[in-house]
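Feature request, filed as a ticket because there's no other form

It would be nice if the structure record came with a short human-readable summary line next to the tokens. Right now we just get the raw output. Example of a typical job, pasted below so the devs can see what we mean:
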Amino acid sequence: MQQKPAQPESKSFLIDPFVLLRKVYDTVEQLTEPALEKLLTTKRFAKLNGKVMSAILLSHRATRESVSAMLHLWNFPAREDILRLGELTLQLEEKIDKLTDRIDDLEKRMAKSAGGQDGSSGAA
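Raw output as currently delivered:
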């Protein structure tokens, strides 16, 4: 059997990359913070940001519509189809609940009327 050489218990000279990265981040943040804050508070940046957000929303809508068309072309249900099916299922559950309540009411009335007829014919 081979024995592994014992490692010395001295301090390691390896640099922790996370400590180094944090120092770099903090330094860059201190240097750029005033300029970025000044930039972010301008009306020009707000207008540009609005245009970028509009472009992003437009591309999301176009992507969603093209994926939906592609799914329909391949005969797969799209998100809208599944949502519509869920709504129809909820409506059906509500109708079943109403019918169940009506049946329960009818059964109670029939039981009362049957009990009332039995009670009146026995008293006569």
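Something like this underneath would help us a lot:
DSSP finds three helices and no strands in the chain.
Residues 16-76 form one domain.
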